[in-house]
Amino acid sequence: QKEVEQNSGPLSVPEGAIASLNCTYSDRGSQSFFWYRQYSGKSPELIMFIYSNGDKEDGRFTAQLNKASQYVSLLIRDSQPSDSATYLCAVKGTGRRALTFGSGTRLQVQP
Amino acid sequence: DGGITQSPKYLFRKEGQNVTLSCEQNLNHDAMYWYRQDPGQGLRLIYYSQIVNDFQKGDIAEGYSVSREKKESFPLTVTSAQKNPTAFYLCASNLGSGNSNQPQHFGDGTRLSIL
């Protein structure tokens, strides 16, 4: 079982719709959760981070964390073609100093 | 501007050659990290350093070496022992130490290929 799992996609949504990206993790003691956006050929850039159960909103982005079910999700409201990218979920697990990354979900927003 | 600078952007390695990738940060971060990304894959940890003159192996350290002689710099050497070095190499940093939950920020990456 992979430590951090994401559906590879592609996830295709029409412009203006809500995109929902999901991530599950295996280490129940994980403390911190991050979403990065990566455009093709570029390095990851931080979108959101969340530490506590519940929702955290920042503009069009909402991160949702459910530690009991061991999943974290990212919602993108009013999706734009410029949101088309790969979204990487990263988790800081128990006793680890660095992050463990999922393989990413490719999002395509259709104009 | 504060940030993480990786160089070169593209690098080619010949058979049996060692090559060194540079990573410099002016964010006053204690912790620095090296990751490798293969096409369609997530990032895998090669080495990390929480403080000057100290570093630890990550999940895929074989065939790589690092040094941390200065807080600002964390170069990665890809040795000839790394038989499949073609990948996108990413350097990251964060505050580290008691702030290890803080987000990591990335440089622009170095793309390494075999000649």
Architecture overview:
The complex is a heterodimer of chains A (111) and B (115). Chain A is mainly beta. Helices cover 0% and strands 54% of the residues of chain A. Chain A has no helices and 11 strands. In chain A, a hairpin with a 6-residue loop joins β4 (32-38) and β5. Chain A starts with a strand and ends with a strand. The mean pLDDT of chain A is 94. By secondary structure, chain B is mostly beta strands. Chain B is 0% helix and 49% strand. The relative contact order of chain B is 0.32. Chain A binds chain B through residues 4, 8, 31-32, 34, 42-46, 49, 51, 88, 90, 92, 97-104, and chain B through 31, 33, 35, 40-45, 48, 50, 56, 58, 90, 96, 100-101, 103-109.
Keywords:
heterodimer, A: 111 residues, mainly beta, five-stranded antiparallel beta sheet, globular, B: mainly beta, four-stranded antiparallel beta sheet
Helix and strand arrangement:
The complex is a heterodimer of chains A (111) and B (115).
Chain A: E1 4-6, E2 11-14, E3 19-25, E4 32-38, E5 45-50, E6 54-58, E7 61-66, E8 71-76, E9 85-92, E10 100-101, E11 105-110
Parallel strand pairs in A: 2-11
Antiparallel strand pairs in A: 1-3, 3-8, 4-5, 4-9, 6-7, 7-8, 9-10, 9-11
Chain B: E1 4-7, E2 10-13, E3 19-25, E4 31-37, E5 43-51, E6 54-57, E7 64-66, E8 76-78, E9 87-94, E10 105-106, E11 110-114
Parallel strand pairs in B: 2-11
Antiparallel strand pairs in B: 1-3, 3-8, 4-5, 4-9, 5-6, 7-8, 9-10, 9-11
